[in-house]
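Submission sheet (multi-component)
Chains listed below:
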Amino acid sequence: MDAYGEKVDAEGRVHLGAMRPGARCTVSRVGCEGCLAQRLGDLGLVPGEEVLVMRNAPLRDPIEIKVGGFLVSLRRCEASLVEVVAA
Amino acid sequence: MSGRILAALAGQPNCGKSTVFNMLTGARQHVANFPGVTVEKKSGHFRLAGRSAELVDLPGAYSISSYSPEERVTRDFLLFDHPRVVVNVVDASNLRRHLCLTVELLELEANVVVHLNMMDVAARRGQQLDAAVLSQRLGVPVSSGVGHKGQGRAGLMEVMARAVDEPAKDEPFRVDYGPLEPRIKAVADVLAEGGDLGVPRRWLALRLLEGDGEARRFTQEVFFDPVRLAAVVAGQQAAFRESAGESAAAFAALARRRLARTLAAAATLKSAGPEKTRTDAIDDFVCHKYFGPVILVAVLFVLYEISITFGEMLTEDYTRPLLEAVKSVVVGLLPPEGMLEDPILRSLGLWFVDSINELLGYVPVFFMLFFCVSFLEDSGYMPRMAFILDRLFRSYGLHGQSTMPMVLAGVYLGGCCVPGVMACKAIPDDKSRLATILIIPLMNCLAKAPLYLLLVGAFFPHNAAAAMFFISTVTLFMALPMARVLSSTLLAGLDNAPFIMEMPPYHMPTLGNMLTRSLGKVGFFIQKILTVVTAIAVIVFVLLQFPGISRDHKAAYQARLDAARENLDRTLAGSPFAPLLAGDNVLEFIRYKTAYQSAREAGEDAGAQAAADGRFQKENPGYFALVAPDAGTAAKAILAEADAFAQSRDAITGEMRRERLEASFLGILGRGLEPVTRFAGFNWRINASLLSAFAAKESAVATLGALYRLEAGDGQSLETALRQGETDFTSLNALALMLFMALYPPCVSTSMTIKVQTGQSRWMAVAILYPMALGLVVASAVFSGGRFLGVDGNTAMWGFYALAVAATLVAGFLPHRPRSVLPATPVCDSLQKA
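Outcome: structure written.
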């Protein structure tokens, strides 16, 4: 699992929690199981799905993203479990 | 087939399910809880093709896993209540996500009809859907409409009626799980040995492979050899993970989502353009770094102004006069007042009506509150509020969604804890929800205001505005550190749920929906008042009236009253007015005279006064001859005597009431508590009024009034009476009392609501006990500490304010746990361990 703050690894893989507003990316892997994976998947965060980072909350956390044409907000902590490939 | 048809409504959150529910059932709704959980169960009746049908609105669930109570309830209802038809409401503008649930419903082998809702939103986004293709691919009927405009009712009814009569399909809908299929078959074969288990076998096998806890428990109960089954499941899971490189659960979930995506693509003739939606444009402002918080404060301010200020105006202008009118009708039905003391039936009746009226008076405020909240909920603003404030509240163990409950309960001044606690339902995380529910009683509900106003008026008259600001805002600075303390002590064992929340598109709420919802909630509130609160009112009445005054003392009061009466009778002797004032008639005369005097005083000019004269002369010419401004000297003398009698009677009955109160159970209790409350500066009277406030906080002022005004006489305001009645009662005492009231335990209605919302009496007990302890500690610290330092109430007030703000800052910056690699929240911690 990537540490929060580490932006990009060798293959250009980053996690959603480190993306800046305006960034476009594709989900490559969801690094968790059970309840949290279910919730992320329920709201469209599944491998292959395109994500657009909309904005940060006024206090920088949580973030708002657009996935599958719809808006979802999640805390950076949860977002950091979603691995993405920047588009 | 005869009997009532059971139908269910299922759908993901934000699919407009409740509008479809309203469209089908109209106003005939019934709200209860599902057994054993605090999930709301809404049901209603309607006619389906000439037959009577019951529609159950299942809670919004993204899927039918067993991770949340909503999902479990939905799944259990579908499996074990066997609805004849399940209407799956789908947001037409977001088919891809909503069809995931449809696929799961079909796997449960429920008799599903799909209803495409919000067709207008899809159309606005330029989407075109082909319902026929969707129907053919899913193998179930599909209807469409716009729920909030009531469009599509006939079509939906038709497909429902058709589905009810249709026999079960031979070929149930199947998801092709590819490499997982042989594993499913292996588990299903073992299950087949157990015969019919009452649930679809393939579905159960799949759930077991996915490691679903509820499914495992179910088989342990109904399957004859659960040990072997568990071994087979574990073996198949391991083998699948070995070959596929991922868990069966992740694979199956992805397979369903891929299928939903394919289905959505097939049914979509024209998809939405990539252009920026209206919602995005609004969010640019509403969630903006700087505008966002400003808009939020403005929204809360408007909400407060509309519901509290405007609602209060309605209360004063319409509700109170109406309730007064009702009261006078009731009073007319009660036995007449007695010369020395009222018959018990009368005093109980009056007490009863006053107690209920006091609370019913707030109905307009509640209605406005609920109405505004419905607007915010339906418009889609609530999740934005949570988005903006989540970071701040998280530091205290609360949640972004804690904002609304706190506002409703009175984050400034004026609110009500009942709707506040009810609104906590929206918080998806157990720990934060409980923490919010537990600090809600510390907010400033409207009922605390009368005591604040009284004390501020009496003891801080020169800086009343500052004192009101102090008490209105200091509560937040006590509640936030308290939330932090609670979540790291009592609530430490509970799990935090992840914060992942859909931000639904904005849309204009409809008046009908808002009215239905807010009226429903007001109805719930009134029902509560009429049951619980009245019962408590009677108990408090008993505590106030008994054991009563001894016979000797009563005789002494009677003798004094008789003596006063003799004086009056002597003057009356031989006068033509004697029969008018004989016996109990004198009470009627006193009432008449008081009414006449206030009518004259109210009359602004001579004309109005003459009109009052005419009215009263017509009502009772005999009495009028006594009170008329042009009455003769004999009449004037008798009037003076009657006045004197009225005054002595007031004094005697007042003294008697006071003695009764002192000797009452409540009075005894108040005295008994003096050794403890001495440190907070409360005497027995304050104790008695605080005790009576448990039923409803307004009672505190009512009881204080009863205690002090009696001695002071009617002419003085309670503020003056309070200042004069207690020579050693200083502004420091008043400050301690105000703080105690701010931290007062929740009233009976709130306590009941807490029990309902948490589903456990335990939390209700906590919510009652900890504020009491905290209140006593704070009040004692302020009073005794202030006395020790020799400061007055004003200095102590701002000193305490500084301390509370400091505590809040410290609590906010304190880390929750030792920092880990990831930003520390319990979810991430538990994940790392796993």
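Remark: Chain B has a mean pLDDT of 84.
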